[in-house]
Specification:
heterodimer; A: six-stranded mixed β-sheet; 11 strands; about 0% helix; globular; B: mainly beta; seven-stranded mixed β-sheet; four-stranded antiparallel β-sheet
Chain lengths: ~110, ~120
C-alpha cells in the first residue's frame, strides 16, 4: 500500500524567501507524481506533473524534482510571495491515486 | 477555472439520510474520480469511473456508490449517512483513466455536513 508523507506539515516564511517542500513515497511503482495547490475550502489546482521517466519539471517560479529510486520529490518555490500562501499537496499515480497530507505554507508580507 | 463543476457547493444532512452529489467533467474527459477530504487532511480516493464503468476503488464501504453517464458527468451517492461522512467531497476529471500521464482537473468541491 502506497504511503505519501509531506514534510513539513506547516511552514511560515517572509516574502522573497526561496523554499523547498518535501514529499516522500514508499512504492516507487508510480506512473507520475503531481503537485497541487489548495486554497481554504476550495478544490485543487494542478501545478506540475512529473512523469515517472522524468527528473524534473518547471513552471515559472516553481520547480519540482522526482527521484523514484529514493521515493522522493521536492517542490522548490523561488522568491515566494504572499499569494503563494496555500496548502501544497503531492499525489502519486499508481494502482490508485494517493495524496499526502499537505504542507500549509504562509508567506508573510 | 478547471471546467469541472460540482453541485451543490454546500449541503447539510442528518444521520441516516441519503445524499447525491454531482460533477460535470471538463469537456472531452472520459474519466472522473471522487475524493473525500476531512478537515486538515489530504484527499482520500473513493473511486473512479472510466467510460461509465467503475475501474478503481479506495477503502470505502458499499454505501458509497456512484454513476457515470454517457456525457461523462457523474454522481456520488452516500446512503445511511454517518457523522464521520462530514467532509469536502471533490471530483476530478481526466482523460484515459488512472494509468496515464494526464493531469487531473478538480472541481471546487461539495462541503457536506452531517448532523
Amino acid at each position: 500500500k502506497q504511503e505519501v508523507t509531506q514534510i513539513p506539515a506547516a511552514l511560515s516564511v517572509p516574502e522573497g524567501e526561496n523554499l523547498v517542500l518535501n514529499c516522500s513515497f514508499t512504492d516507487s511503482a508510480i506512473y507520475n507524481l503531481q503537485w497541487f495547490r489548495q486554497d481554504p475550502g476550495k478544490g485543487l489546482t494542478s501545478l506540475l506533473l512529473i512523469q515517472s521517466s522524468q527528473r524534473e519539471q518547471t513552471s515559472g517560479r516553481l520547480n519540482a524534482s522526482l527521484d523514484k529510486s529514493s521515493g522522493r520529490s521536492t517542490l522548490y518555490i523561488a522568491a515566494s510571495q504572499p499569494g503563494d500562501s496555500a496548502t501544497y499537496l503531492c499525489v502519486t499515480s499508481g494502482s490508485r491515486l494517493t495524496f499526502g497530507e499537505g504542507t500549509q505554507l504562509t508567506v508573510n508580507p | 477555472e478547471t471546467g469541472v463543476t460540482q453541485s451543490p457547493t454546500h449541503l447539510i444532512k442528518t444521520r441516516g439520510q441519503q445524499v447525491t452529489l454531482r460533477c460535470s467533467s471538463q469537456s472531452g474527459h472520459n474519466t472522473v474520480s471522487w475524493y473525500q477530504q476531512a478537515l486538515g487532511q489530504g484527499p482520500q480516493f473513493i473511486f473512479q469511473y472510466y467510460r461509465e464503468e467503475e475501474n478503481g476503488r479506495g477503502n470505502f464501504p458499499p454505501r458509497f456508490s456512484g454513476l457515470q453517464f454517457p456525457n461523462y458527468s457523474s454522481e456520488l451517492n452516500v446512503n445511511a449517512l454517518e457523522l464521520d461522512d462530514s467532509a469536502l467531497y471533490l471530483c476530478a476529471s481526466s482523460l484515459g483513466g488512472l494509468a496515464t500521464n494526464e493531469k487531473l482537473f478538480f472541481g471546487s468541491g461539495t462541503q457536506l455536513s452531517v448532523l
